[in-house]
Amino acid sequence: MPSLYNIVIWFGTLVILISFITALRLIGKRNCPFYLKNFYLFPFLALLVSANTILGGYFHLFSHRLIHIIQNLLFILEFLFWYLFFLALIKRNSKSLHFVFMLFLVITILLRLITGFHNLRFEILAVTNFGNIFFCLIYYNELFKSIPKLNLNSEPSFWIVTGLFFYNCISLPIYTIESFLTTNLPRLITRNIFATTNIAIILMHILFIKAYLCQIRQHKAL
Amino acid sequence: MSDTSTQSIIVFVILSTVLILLLITFISIIIYRYQQKQNAYFKDIETLKKEHESAMLQSQLEIQEQTFQNISREIHDNIGQKLTLAKLHLNTLGFSNIEQTASQVNDSVNMISEAINDLSDISHSMNSENILNNGLIKGLEFEVAQLTKSGLYNIRLTVTGNTLFLDTQKELVVFRIVQEALNNIIKHANASIIKIELHYSTSILSLKISDNGSGFDQNSRNGSGLINMKKRTEMLAGQIDINSELNAGTTISINIPLL
After folding, report:
1. B48 part of contact set with chain A, CB < 8 Å
2. Tens of pLDDT along A122-167?
3. How close is the nearest chain B Cα to the Cα of A149, in Å?
4. Looking at the domain that runs over B128-259, which CATH code has it been given?
5. Domain boundaries in chain A?
6. What is the pTM of this model?
7. Burial A133-170 (b: 16+ CB within 10 A, else e)
8. ipTM of the complex
9. Residues of A in contact with B9 (CB under 8 A)
10. Exposure string over B127-148, b if 16+ CB within 10 A, otherwise e
């Protein structure tokens, strides 16, 4: 019987796949903002991460070393994606975005070089999570500083950023104390705690799907 | 099912529920705060709108009051004087000297005719039907024709751009601004050349009225005519720029948004 942890991973992959397919529908839509038209790239990267985990971890198609190298590269690409996403979304505060991106990217790459790209260290992933949280805070700051004319319920960017912010806030403390958790706590508790981050990923992608649906509904209304 | 699996499922369900509740709370707080800000913003807009409407109403009343004063002064200084003089002539008719009597009657008839013409002019200038029926450009052409007839001014009206009919009230206010400017030129400028330029662009109506008259000192207190023009321009959310130099004429430029 598959463990609960594995079920969460499989279910998460399914949600990411649905998110990716829905995002593909927005590619050719007119009146669709640039950041949303190209958003399919993120679920695609997330799918690669999942596929890498499943194919390498469960089916042992590649070595652990290769899985970790691919995973580390994909995490950096995801961070780059979010930087470009926020750059397209926030026009006024691009200097802060450049600064946050450069700072956290340099720290991540340095740490990866020190620990080795073939090691999967979640503490380093926490650094990019920190960067993503800063991006989201810049967005929220802009949202509350600008003229409040938006209807947040039907604003795709709000749902995307909220999903991202939520996931990063949940996963940041867990990733930060990953070594402590794996060495000091029983396996059952550790797995459950890590399952939390997977639930947060699922919730994040559900919010992304909500964002795409806002846009698809708006498009149909036109 | 083993105890470990049961425990695992219980922990998982609890964690999932807590996470979902956290997410819902977070989203609710953000939306609630944003809506509060939105409500405050719309309230501010509403207040500003009301203040603006109140200011507009005040301006309209002041302009109306000024117009009544002008009519009253015109009747008192011009028409009233002519009629009083005519009455005086008729009261002092002697009939002993037929020639003098005939001349007095003639003068009286002339004065009454002038008074009737003055009354007709006032009535015509106050009447907005011409603008409402024929539009701003026709109204201005009529004013220009009237002034040209006097033989005192070389006056030219130029209209450029894609002309369009504006809201009638807007056209009437623009027309009153031009009338006020022409009135000022006639009364104070001692000018011989007057130019009225009207340019329609996609979003702005530009109006320029210039003369070669005596001009005035811009630092001195503005007369009621200029104040009226400024208030009328404000009513149309436009901008007015008055340039004048002593003995070098005056140019009044007005930009009125069309959208």
Report:
1. no
2. 888 899 999 999 999 999 999 998 888 888 888 999 999 999 999 9
3. 7
4. 3.30.565.10
5. 4-221
6. 0.67
7. bbbbebbbebbeeeebeeebebbbbbbbbbbbbbbbbb
8. 0.80
9. 4
10. eeeebeeebbbebbeebbeebe
